[in-house]
């Protein structure tokens, strides 16, 4: 078993390939690389979901280094994995980050929209006004999968819901203070 005590998710069960050094080097044979990318894609998505990671920095993402076997992915391998995540609709690079910050979509944006709406309806929030910050990280959303979501991601979800006329977004008194009313 891989020593995962250095990870924030110490109870996460890593797949066998994670202890296999060649997986930390891009494979030159097309079929082998496709399998490698598939394994990394599944690992990144399952790890981020289990540890509630919504975004990571490619240069410092702890999953891209396995200290127990003294291996880490080089920059081109990290980029290849991120590109593969994005190509499969499971990730996107964040604007203004120079490609260094990656948003992981362990739920599709449509699934996140449903999740937020389901919460609002389940908890009787129709007609209520909340700030984006409250939706992302307040005691009212404790236990919800979207708790801890970056406000920029929540805002993107809410903007789509607004176009569908399911919420109304308005500017608060502060420049960064957005309010949302569930319709």
Automatic annotation (TrEMBL):
Alphabetic keyword roster: Protein transport, Transport
One term under GO cellular component: ESCRT II complex
Name of a matching Pfam family: ESCRT-II
GO biological process terms, semicolon-separated: protein transport to vacuole involved in ubiquitin-dependent protein catabolic process via the multivesicular body sorting pathway
One GO molecular-function entry: structural molecule activity
Family: Belongs to the VPS25 family.
Name the UniProt record assigns to this protein: Vacuolar protein sorting-associated protein
């Amino acid at each position: 078993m891989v020593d995962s005590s250095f990870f924030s998710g110490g109870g996460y069960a890593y797949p066998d390939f994670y202890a296999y050094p060649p997986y930390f080097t891009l494979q030159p044979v097309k079929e082998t690389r496709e399998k490698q990318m598939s394994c990394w894609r599944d690992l990144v998505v399952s790890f981020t979901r289990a540890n509630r990671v919504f975004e990571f920095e490619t240069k410092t993402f702890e999953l891209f280094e396995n200290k127990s076997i003294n291996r880490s992915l080089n920059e081109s391998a990290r980029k290849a994995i991120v590109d593969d995540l994005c190509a499969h609709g499971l990730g996107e690079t964040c604007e203004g980050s120079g490609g260094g910050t990656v948003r992981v979509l362990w739920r599709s944006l449509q699934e996140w929209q449903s999740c937020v709406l389901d919460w609002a309806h389940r908890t009787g929030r129709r007609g209520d006004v909340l700030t984006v910050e409250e939706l992302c990280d307040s005691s009212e959303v404790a236990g919800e999968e979207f708790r801890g979501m970056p406000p920029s991601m929540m805002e993107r979800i809410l903007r789509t819901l607004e176009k569908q006329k399911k919420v109304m977004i308005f500017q608060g008194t502060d420049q960064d203070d957005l309010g949302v009313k569930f319709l």
